[in-house]
Amino acid sequence: MRKILYITLLCCSTLGVQAQLEQSSFGATGRGGTATSFVTDYQALGINPANLGFQTDFAFSLGLAEIGYGFYSEALAKDDVRAIIFNNEDSISQEESQVLAQSFLNEGMRFDVDVMPIGFSLRVPKLGTFAFSVTAHASYYTKFEGEAANIVFEGYNYAEYFDTVIIDGSDIYGIAYEPLSLSELFGDSEFKLDINTSINLGYGLKLFGDEETISGYAGIGFKYILGYAYLDMHSDGSTITGLSALGLDILDLEAGITNPITTSAAEPVGRGTGWDFGFSLKVKDNLTASVAITDIGKIKYTANVLQINDFVLDTVSFSGVTTTDPIQIISDMLNEQELIAYSGVGAFEVNLATKLRMGASLKINDMLDIGLDAVFPMNEVAGAFETPVIGAGAQVKLFEILNLSAGISAGGGYAYNIPAGIGLDFKFWELGVATRDALTWFGETSPNVSMALGVLRFKI
After folding, report:
1. For the chain, which terminus, N or C, has the lower number of CB atoms within 10 Å?
2. What is the C-alpha separation between 163 and 211, in angstroms, rounded?
3. Do β-strands 108-124 and 60-73 pair in parallel, antiparallel, or remain unpaired?
4. In terms of DSSP H, where are the helices of 78-208?
5. Closest Cα to residue 215, out of 318, 278, 286?
6. 279: which strand partners?
7. The dihedral sign for the CA sequence 32, 36, 40, 44
8. Could you give the 3-state DSSP secondary structure of residue 151?
9. CA dist., res. 283 & res. 211, Å (int)
10. In what helix (H) or strand (E) does residue 225 lie, and over which residues does it extend?
11. 270: helix, strand or coil
12. pLDDT, position 147
């Protein structure tokens, strides 16, 4: 996880996590991800730009250093996830590799992080609201099926496949006398990685009506995206396919494999654009119904571009992964050319992880708000949700400054979660922290270790 956090910070510094359904908004995280009809000002960017047109009590807002992340795996217990996130300095032993291989059989692991170093919005009378933000995002997903986990974590030490291990001086390699193709070994496995940073612009306005009856709002968002790493590799048991463009010094490429090659961690390997559109309807400023479609666009990758190829795996010198760092796992797999075969290709384009969002919220009184949200993935690219996400939540305001939130959510490759959050709103200054699943801290199975944090959010 150190490397992912380093990556996101690096991406931010070169300019100065969209797979998450609420991105870095701590308020939406605590409400079970209910964001489509709730979020306002710059936090509406990437979620629903129509909400920029809402008539709030402040005309200018500024946020600094907001962050949200989540790590989930059905394969691991809570203590294992904590070790992966907070203690991955140490390499793992061969015995630990075997345990992880068995744990990951037919199971998946997902990690998302969103960092927003700066965001602001400004409402101009009679014109609407303009917003800007810079965000860095990383998402990682793996699902091991067939013999994939055993091969990746044990290498030539996996005795069920490699019949003989030969030691020749400093060289050690395993030989399979009845070899299979990589696709046959990996079965229905997936490896997905997406790391990018974006500059976001948005505009929203009121189209009709007034707050005393019915009012409608529309908005549009645009983002310019710099891609730093992309991998989408999957097998169905008979074929294995994949494309990658990995920067950030993740992969060591030799000259001549593909062109161009970049080894600078600060240089992107792809660029693209995306659009967001949204509409919200308010009834007497109490009931809000919203719909939005986000991330319509593409990224074109032009550097370090590779195609993953199928081949017969008969001899390898790969001793197995010796780390629990997801990025390092990808690096170890692809840098070991006897395990994964690839060849250079020209540039390729991939769609952004387009999402359809629908939500509704009801203001019961000055103390209580409740809401529902549904987010549907529109494609299956790296960074997209595996399944639709449904969330419901509520927020209670106490003593005029204390905001308590809780909810329930399910889907998106995660099990059901019970989010919770706490925030302080001093009108001009707001701060808060939330988790996607409070149950993680009370149980061992299916952990969803997550947090959304913001302490420098100002409103004038």
Report:
1. C
2. 74
3. antiparallel
4. 78-86, 94-104, 148-154, 182-186
5. 286
6. 218, 291
7. positive
8. helix
9. 7
10. strand 214-235
11. strand
12. 78
Interstrand relation of 270-283 and 214-235 (parallel, antiparallel or unpaired): antiparallel
Q: Is 212 helix (H, G, I), strand (E, B) or coil?
A: coil
CATH of the domain at 125: 2.40.160.40
Task: Label residue 188 by pLDDT band (50, 70, 90).
Answer: confident
Report whether 22 contacts 434 (CB < 8 A).
no
Of 418, 422, 414, 453, which Cα lies nearest the Cα of 439? 418
Cα 294 from Cα 305, distance rounded (Å): 26
How many whole angstroms separate alpha carbon 288 and alpha carbon 39? 11
User: Count of domains in the chain?
Assistant: 1
How distant, in Å, are the alpha carbons of 20, 200, 218, 326 from that of 437? Answer: 14, 29, 32, 21
Give the C-alpha separation, 280 to 215, whole Å.
Answer: 8
Q: pTM (2 decimals)?
A: 0.82
| Rounded CA separation 102/144 (Å) | 10
Q: Residue 239 sits in which domain range?
A: 2-459
Give yes or no for residue 196 having a pLDDT over 80: yes
